[in-house]
Design a protein that fits this description.
This protein is mostly beta strands and 539 residues long. It has a domain of 107 residues: Elongation Factor Tu (Ef-tu), domain 3 (Beta Barrel). The protein is 11% helix and 32% strand. It has nine helices and 33 strands. The strands form five sheets. It has a 16-stranded parallel sheet that branches. A seven-stranded parallel sheet has the order 5-8-16-18-22-25-27. Strand 12 and strand 13 form a beta hairpin.
């Protein structure tokens, strides 16, 4: 199988076609993962697995009712605290979330606010009208922090997975299928490998040991796969709607199936700006805590139509699933961007640490604008997989794959700006390859007038010798040398095709899947007859 993939890589890099041979016209050439296909099915990324638009329920609470002034001078911290306290005692459910309306005004706050295990939406009257002014650094906190828990030990566990299963499989063997039925959402969990060391190698088809920092990569982190049950075959055999994006490997433990019972579902932030009163970015790892929004352990949350100014951390998505970040713009003030050198000249540098950070599964970052640059603009963090970054632009994008066994990110229809540092990445030295297997760059382009039409592939190959394995480059971003520099690069696929008529792979996959009223596509490797949505399944 490995030799077949390496041969395929060489063939695709050498040929030319009006369509990607991995997709074809309207998906006609798509090969499911189980058949050795290199493209994952990213159509489930985002809120409610892409099966409904972002919600707009009516307001249930008014910030002004809690004494907020919104005049840019008075401290409105207590008003927000009282509003969150009232909602925490109310009936805020996934099917009927509480909505806090924050009318036009400038609201000064001096601490962060935590929303724990509740369904709460914060809604302003638009980023041009509703301003949150952060007057003090927050340390490790964020202005708005949403907390939950997706997998909760025996509370959510249904059964153990028995044995192994190959990548792309829709059938898994379990200890018992009791309590499971077709159409039900479940979460297939695979823990880290026993003993660490080079045991992450199966994820990389044996081409690289992967993460060798046991304390980091095995620190209670797990691979999660959300899927509906397609069919209960018998008392020990389960078929899933979505194929496995990775194999169920013998050395990875524990392997379990859990019920879908998240503690925090259906919340978000929309229609406002967050402005930090931070005059100067102090530099990498010297941040004081001007952090905007954070989601931890939540499902079906969103940020929509939000502007963030002068942040150390913009939006962080940690161990969460089906989160959509849409219409976000990140800005840096002139004072924060400018470092005066010895000659008195203003040297522009980064204005924050991370613009957007994502870990977890099936998250969607779309329609974004980076009007400033961060040390890491968009980061795929530890164990992030099956996420999508689409339809965005930046002045000098850094697509940061932060090691830690992230897996299968799709970057599609992204304008990188000057292309000075597109593959710049961070992460600890022993935390494995930067980008996980099957990470795909589809119609990602340099767009600044001063940028090259295509990156120097030989230089890129030298600088990014450990960028990843089984990576896909489709479009005209890169021109790699005919002879790969190492075994990792032998597994890369490069296709030079004109994607004018097919700019966004995520949208094309979604269109293919939603042609079926059950929202299951056998062409993309799906099985079954669908079922309830994630929102309908939330308790």
């Amino acid at each position: 199988m490995l030799m077949l993939m390496l041969m395929l890589a060489g063939t695709l890099a050498a040929g030319a076609s009006p369509y990607s041979s991995m997709w074809g016209l309207n998906g006609a050439s798509y090969a499911p993962v189980k058949d050795g296909g290199r493209l994952l099915d990213w159509s489930y990324a985002g809120y409610n697995a892409g099966e409904s638009p972002l919600p707009s329920p009516p307001a249930t609470h008014e910030l002004k009712d809690f004494g907020a002034q919104g005049n840019g001078v008075a401290d409105d911290t207590l008003s927000f605290a009282h509003a969150f306290d009232a909602m925490s005692r109310g009936a805020c459910t996934p099917k009927a979330p509480c909505v806090l309306h924050i009318p036009c005004g400038r609201y000064v706050v001096k601490q962060g606010f935590r929303v724990a295990s509740r369904s709460i939406i914060l809604r302003g009257d638009g980023p041009h009208c509703t301003d949150i002014i952060v007057a003090s650094p927050l340390g490790a906190a964020s202005v708005f922090q949403f907390w939950g828990l997706i997998v909760d030990g025996d509370r959510t566990k249904l059964t153990d997975v028995v044995g192994t299963a190959p990548r792309g499989a829709n059938t898994i063997q379990v200890a018992s299928t009791s309590g499971m039925a077709a159409g039900q959402w479940v979460i297939v969990i695979m823990g880290g490998p026993e003993g660490g060391g080079d045991h992450f190698a199966p994820l990389h088809m044996g081409l690289d040991p992967g993460c060798t920092d046991v304390s980091f990569c095995n620190d209670d982190k797990s691979f999660m796969h959300f899927t509906r049950v397609a069919r209960v075959v018998d008392s020990v055999t389960l078929q899933t709607e979505r194929p496995l994006p990775w194999g169920m490997y013998a050395t990875f433990t524990p392997k379990t199936v859990h019920a879908y019972r998240p503690r925090a579902s259906n919340g978000g932030v929309e229609g406002l700006s967050i402005r930090m009163r931070s005059r100067r970015y102090l530099g990498h790892f010297r941040e004081t805590g001007y952090n905007a929004i954070k989601f931890t352990g939540v499902v079906n949350h969103f940020v929509r139509d939000v502007r963030i100014y002068d942040a150390d951390l913009g939006v962080t998505v940690s161990n969460s699933a089906f989160v959509t970040l849409r219409d976000i713009s990140l800005h840096g003030s002139a004072a924060r961007e400018c470092v005066v050198d010895a000659g008195g000249a203003c040297k522009v540098k980064e204005t924050g640490h991370h613009g957007i950070v994502a870990s977890g599964v099936d998250n969607l970052i779309t329609n974004f604008t980076f009007a400033t640059r961060f040390v890491h603009d968009i980061t795929m963090a530890k164990m992030a997989h099956n996420s999508v970054v689409s339809d965005g632009k930046a002045v000098m994008m850094a697509m940061d794959h932060h090691k830690g066994e992230n897996h299968g990110t799709l970057w599609t229809n992204v304008s990188l700006g000057t292309c000075t540092r597109p593959f710049s990445h961070g992460g600890c030295p022993a935390c494995g390859l930067a980008a996980g297997p099957y990470t795909t760059f589809w119609n990602v382009a340099c767009t600044s007038p001063s940028a090259p039409t295509a990156l120097d592939g030989h230089q890129l190959a030298q600088r990014q010798a450990r960028l990843g394995v089984f990576l896909n480059f489709v479009g005209n971003l890169t021109k790699f040398p005919a002879t790969p520099l190492n075994r990792l690069q032998e597994s890369w696929v490069q296709e030079h095709v004109d994607l004018t008529a097919a700019p966004n792979l995520h949208m094309m996959q979604a269109a293919l899947r939603f042609r079926n009223f059950r929202k299951v596509s056998t062409r993309l490797g799906g099985l079954g007859k669908g079922g309830k949505t994630l929102v309908q399944s939330s308790s």
